[in-house]
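Lab meeting, item 3. Inverse folding demo.
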């Protein structure tokens, strides 16, 4: 089962897949089936997760690991409630959501604009996050 349409923090990708973005400390119901966490340390959860080491305002420490995690999140979102979270739920989360929009067929600049319009105006908050997305997978 995926997220209900219009659920708080949920972004519907162009394909119709829905992903929830949030800040790690912002608890929301219901729990996800799987989570992708973009922090330096993985948070404790009661559900399965994947973790990408990613400093605040920075870039993922391992590019290939990040794109593999995005691909897994994209694949799982077809049938599961998937969430993506970082400390604030904006920069890193927004960058990851833009990456998923790219995996859904949008170009990098289009994906950035798309996520900013539909998720958070401050998503993909640094110039280097925008640059990183333009490099692609």
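The presenter then showed the designed sequence:
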């Amino acid at each position: 089962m995926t997220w209900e349409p219009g659920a708080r923090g949920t972004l519907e990708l162009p394909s119709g897949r829905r992903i929830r973005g949030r800040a790690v400390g912002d608890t929301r119901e219901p729990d996800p089936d799987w989570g992708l966490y973009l922090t330096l340390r993985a948070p404790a959860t009661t559900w399965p997760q994947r973790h990408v080491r990613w400093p605040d305002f920075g870039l993922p420490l391992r590019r290939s690991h990040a794109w593999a995690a995005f691909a897994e999140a994209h694949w799982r979102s077809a049938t599961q409630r998937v969430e993506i979270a970082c400390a604030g739920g904006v920069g890193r989360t927004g960058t990851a959501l833009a990456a998923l929009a790219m995996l859904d067929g949008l170009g990098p600049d289009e994906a950035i604009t798309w996520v900013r319009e539909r998720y958070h105006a401050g998503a993909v908050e640094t110039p280097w996050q925008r640059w990183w997305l333009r490099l692609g997978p």
